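User: Run a structure prediction on this.
Assistant: Running it now.
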Amino acid sequence: MHIEFLTLLISIIAVVISYVSLVRTRATSEVQIELERISAELAKKQLARIEENEDREGQPIFIVRFTNVIAFTLGSEVVSEVTIFVHNTGESFLELAHVSLAFSEDGIWKQCPHAFLKQKAFGDKDRVLGEQKITLKPGCDLRNCTLQIRYVDTAGWDRIQEFEIFPEGGFPGDVGVTTPINFYFIFRKIYRIVPLEYGAG
């Protein structure tokens, strides 16, 4: 009887050990799968970063920095005026066309409605583009707007550098958001403008 009890006890312990081992193996497998997924995502992001760096190689690297925002009343409307400063830390360029706010509709670039950018005097055209004033009126939709800097690079190509706009605390027009306290301008892409007879570049 004593031997049978010990045999049964050993069998139960073996089953428990097997179950615990199975659970741990499954948990380890799930963790491994998650780690592989994260590694794949990081690899994609790294690849995108390398492609982005290659895209900007030999080009001006424009930095768009928020400096100030004020709100004032214009008639019956509350208007925000955002001041930004633009400078170049990369290669020089031959000619600056303009800085603008635009959105794409059916493949055509259009001026962002209810948002206006006032050109200021440029400093050294190769490095400092100086202050720009952005006026935001009620109804502006910055979610679909990008800031674009158009220029001619040293190879003679007409290009556009595009920046996404991220207001801190929410977009103007959102519930409870009147005037964001800060804005971030994140580089998105460089376009090369090619005459139609040459095709896309």
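The chain has two domains: 1-57, 62-198.
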